[in-house]
């Protein structure tokens, strides 16, 4: 954790008895001056984060009766709901996939946090924006997302009187366009089920395991792996929502997360990490040897160009 940055993190996964994939949502609150863990402000924010993450996960696992007015068998409902949320995939301008669940969960989180914390200046740093949904060919998808968001909020009971229009949903999604930064309070959202994993070619002797999303950080924190190396192509900019929650999980478990130079990741620079090298995650014992090996490898690559 960087000096002067306080973080509240909530990771929520759907119940394991559901057969459809279990999405997880990482919510972090970063602020220049951290609120004491035992303070009323901290607990209020933590409760809001839990509620937002829980409802976002519920949106992805909602029974079909919440999203379509059809009468199907339970097995049929699961299949159709899975198709609604996972096969309805669009491609963004950067060619990464985005689903109904990505848009809907971001809208729900934005709405809940703003409602639960009305006295605070709201700042959400998230991946999606409404640009593609405003296109004429996306109107059917937008209406589907709007209904799914409204049904999810109504299922909680707290927001039963709220009915969002399509324009409200677009605005809620665009609330995630904050640039973040070193001042004020910022929430960082990552819907893990929609994050695009980049294929990597690693020069390691043991066969690597390629895992999408921030599950890589979770695997290392559990002791299921020893090293995570990320060296994306030249010019790629790392988004903070792809690493913030995972870095905290590993750090809290006793691991170490740095850039290729051995420096802690700095999440206070806005939407992107200010680095042009790579990311290394491992345990304190292996880190010195790993940093040395990475530096030697990078030097060899540079000298061969």
Automatic annotation (TrEMBL):
It comes from the Eukaryota. This is 3'(2'),5'-bisphosphate nucleotidase. GO terms for biological process: phosphatidylinositol phosphate biosynthetic process; sulfate assimilation. It comes from Rhododendron griersonianum. It catalyses: 3'-phosphoadenylyl sulfate + H2O = adenosine 5'-phosphosulfate + phosphate; adenosine 3',5'-bisphosphate + H2O = AMP + phosphate. The keyword Chloroplast does not apply. It is an enzyme of class 3 (hydrolase). It holds the Pfam family Inositol_P. Its cofactor is Mg(2+). Gene3D superfamilies: 3.40.190.80, Fructose-1,6-Bisphosphatase, subunit A, domain 1 (3.30.540.10). Keywords: Hydrolase, Magnesium, Metal-binding.
